[in-house]
Amino acid sequence: MDQKDKTPEKNAPSKSEESTVISMEDNKTDKTKIKKEAVKTDESDTEKEKNNTKQQNMKSKNSQTDLGKFFLDALQDIYYAEAKIEESLAKIKHKATSEELQEALEDHELVTKKQILRLEKIFKHLGEEAKKKKCDAIDGILKEVDEMVKNTEDGSMTRDVAIIIGSQKVEHYEIATYGGLVQIAITLGHEKVADLLETTLDEEEETDFLLTEIAEEHVNFDAAEEK
Ligand code: FE
Ligand code: FE
Ligand code: FE
What we know:
By secondary structure, the protein is an all-alpha fold. It is 82% helix and 0% strand. It starts with 7 loop residues before the first helix and ends with a helix.
């Protein structure tokens, strides 16, 4: 270890001249600290009990309030959506022209699989069954993506433009959903769930950013050269 880390100030602060001058103040602070720590210990003693009760009440609480019900519905909606997105990515990755886009779609397919497992973890944490609820929005967006792909030529860069725009519509739907869900989870006091949802939100935002980069650096200029 460094000599710096063993300085007397760190180990015995009350013996320096300066600390004598402010020792009364220090004393007060120490007492407050001790009190606070005592309260903390009391809290941690009962914390386990509290958490158990919380977990037990979680399931009924979820369906007791309108916001709780709304939150569950929205989770079931995005759980359905992610499954459809995974299916779509598995198909569409073979239709992309550029290697960069193919790779990005393949990566996001794997990320999407993880997100589905993460949602299952969230349902479990809430004491709820993982259920899917039909999401008309994602069905519509994915239908549009399919049409855009069909209307572009195989092996063309215009095809990639279509896939990128379509995929970004999907990502933006997800960003809007997860962004809202993170905030509701915080409001409902589901901190762990909020963290999990935020991880997914970050992944969707990264993907959106990457798709923009691929469009700007590789695809759009080449597509503009096509007839
Ligand atoms: Fe996703
Ligand atoms: Fe939806
Ligand atoms: Fe996504």
